[in-house]
Here is the input.
Amino acid sequence: MLSKVPEVTIWFWVIKVLCTTVGESFADWVNETLGVGLQTTTIIFTVVLVAVLVWQMSLRRYVPVVYWLTVVVLSVTGTLYTDILTDALGVPLALSTTVFAAILAVVFGIWYARERTLSIHSIITTPREGFYWLAVLVTFALGTAVGDWTLELTGWSPGVAVLLPAGLIAAIAAGWRMGANPVLSFWLGYILTRPLGANLGDWLARPASEGGVGLGTAGTSALFLAAILGVVIYLTVTRADVIDKPDAAEAKAAGVGRERVMLGYYGALAAATAGLLVWASGQPHGTSAALEEEGPPAAMVTSLPSGQTPAIAFPADDITKMRQIVTDTMTKVQAGDGSGATARITDLETLWDDDQDRLQPMNPTAWGYLDGKIDHALKAVRTASPDPEAEKQALAELSTALQ
Here is the structure.
């Protein structure tokens, strides 16, 4: 076959970051804003992924639209797989990061043992393409876990956290320029674009009151999908990223020297990154335990004027979505599914935060009242030592407030 992947130009990395941002924001929009739910969203995108992969692998050459559609769907799906482990199954991010790293190492090991190369310039056979897409999927899941674990360890906001992967990618690019192995450099950069894009997406989507830009998940997804489409159209017309002679490109890449010296450079970079994370994790920052010990927020309203309810103050569709999440959470609490209840009540938190800029101006008093009830329910369900009766009471109070 002709080469099935694009040349690694600046356009490649631009679209890759755009795709990872869409993977974060679009998954959140479908899961939370539309109220589809994490598991259903994962099933939907897994089916879509299979269909898109069949389409991509049936082609005999690189087609920009199909290739980058596959990357977008892989980005969303990889994100969802990590979220399933973390939110639905309660797997610690440290463990999921380790597991995905081990899986990626196995994929690369089998790929190299069979094909004797991991270079994307060599994707000219079906087995190599299969290994390539499997590796891409795992890198998205691993990148998601690494990014989330970094936020958990450091307490950084997405706007600050984006600087770490951006700085590491710049350092890897410098290493590649100085003679580091191009294949190793490529895959390290590929993994790091995931937390870079995810943090960028979170920063753009978050309300301005939380230090974000306030575009929301829908606005961020639409903006970046439009940008991806524009770049893909440009590449389709100009063919600026088509590898016409993969054998020549492979030979050129294989001639890069000083690889052993630069392995030490990458080792030092990894050690410095680990040291930074250890230092940051030891600094005072907000944690779930700290949040649980806080008193009620200053803006919380303990009661509403006679005749006024959130159901009257806010659109019926919004109230219906919140009621459904509370009902689902109560069902899981009653069934003893603590991790499931935590995941579902987190859907409510995200939905509420995403809609703050729209709902709060409608009725600030009702918003403050409902915000307090939601905060109380979140703390009850997500406490380190859950009390089923306290959870049920908090959820019942929230359910009553939504009537």
Observations:
- Residues 10-281 form one domain.
- The chain has two domains: 10-281, 288-401.
